[in-house]
Amino acid sequence: MGTLFIALITMDGDFFSLNQLMKLKLDQRLVKRLFPDVVILDPISDEKGDFDEEISNEKYSAQIENLREQISFISKIDDTPCVFIQYYFKKLLLNASQVGNVGSPLGKGFTDSIEKGVITSSGGWEAEQVLTLGTGLTSWRNTRNRVLSQFVVQLRDSDLHNKKAISKANQEKLGVILPQVVPAGTITRRATETLWLTASNVREDRVGSEFKGVITPFPGYCFVGADVDSQELWIASLIGDSTYGEHGATPLGWMALQGQKSDGTDMHSKTAAELSQGKPGLVSRNMAKAFNYARIYGSGKGLARNMLRDCCKDLTEEEVRQSIDKMFASTKGNEVHELTNLGRRQALSHGLLVEELPASDIAKLSSITGFSQYQLSKARKTRYAGGSESAMFNKLEEIARSDQPATPFLKCRITRTLEPSVIQKSYQLNSRINWVVQSSAVDFLHLLLVAMKWLMSEYRIPGRFTLSIHDEVRFHVPLEYKYEAALALQIANLLTRSFFSAQLGINDLPNNVAFFSGVDIDRSLRKNVKHECITPSNPHGLSVSYGIEPGEELDIFTLLERVNVLRAQRENLS
To answer: What average pLDDT does the segment 39-50 reach?
Structure first.
């Protein structure tokens, strides 16, 4: 829906933008005096002020034809060649629900649309600069107060243990930030903090988004850390694989182990291809990742439809519904209900020797036999079948519906206020499913930290735990022990994943998940060891502006070689 404006512009004159035409129309006499060759006709709209493009030929054909006659008449009198131009005004949608009015098109909700060119300006270079600066400042506007309110401690001489490695000038500048972390700030026992745990990645067009990258260790030290590869996805697939007692026994487990991003066989690439409906690139892999994790965390079709509307605004409602239904059928599968004794007898009388049926088939059986669906099936005894993630969801719901839900690894229980013994088993089911996956990831972190502490103590590797950001951990280690600390982190990952598998009755561990794909050794808290974190506020990069050189990312094989060389050198010196 929109309002139709028709404007007449001379072929040999300047092209007037819509805003200019609207302003000119305020005084027709001024228009004729300043621009005698331009004729601006009144807008056409219905009683509500709306114009419907689809019915324009029927409802407004007479008016449009009359205007064309006017144009023709004017052209003959003034001998002015003219162009017939139609402008359609469409309402800017506030969100996927298509309700509410937009306060400003420069708001946070339209940042992506501006970056993709969906929302542009015809006002020239200055207007484009306003849009660019508006989006570029969003990151700093959101984080400025939190950055300035950090708890900073300036170090005294007595706090410095190795003064020789630090120049006198640098000693006066040294200080530390104490993150104000709540160790178990959520129901899933995840840590919470207002800045470091919520910061987004560095963006070249975002002012101040490099602030994590400028955090450095003490002189003579480095950060050793790693991101746990697809942590929650692996945990969820492992829970599903435990149904059959073997890694990769389910389609989800197999994709998690063998899927490759390069050839499009990993989980996220498959989902992106499915949602794109044969239109390559309609839904990117990063967008598909959001759909997959939302589904694993227990969200339903409603949220998925809203997400698809937001990222693909050109899709019709029917296309959105079909895409999401197809994705859920191929991943989560279809609900299958266990039949009652009556239901089994009725199914047998119609040639079906089954113990359970999909909900759609039970509805058909109900219409044929005259019995209600509640009489034919046990509504609460459901499972999923036919999808790549069906086994996983069956296990997660089994845990979530148990009387005392607990993680299958460290047996940590959910808060008593959400236990099914206190509330209905179906109430807050999605939240409890989400809790199983998220709280199991916290089990992983706790085991990893305990294993790392033991290894560093056992092999006399100095250093201390600095910060964990969800599935990312960082340790503060002297430079001469950086390779031993990195190897210890690899072994800690091996021990943790082995424990997880053993707790589910799988006494095996595939090589491609046993170790981190890479351990970072760096003098910065940046996400990538070679990233320069170039932004409008850091145009020259970390190496030029802060003297932070690129770090190292080492796999298990390279680490073993480095540690062996290092130990050989130490033995020769001794």
So the answer is: 44
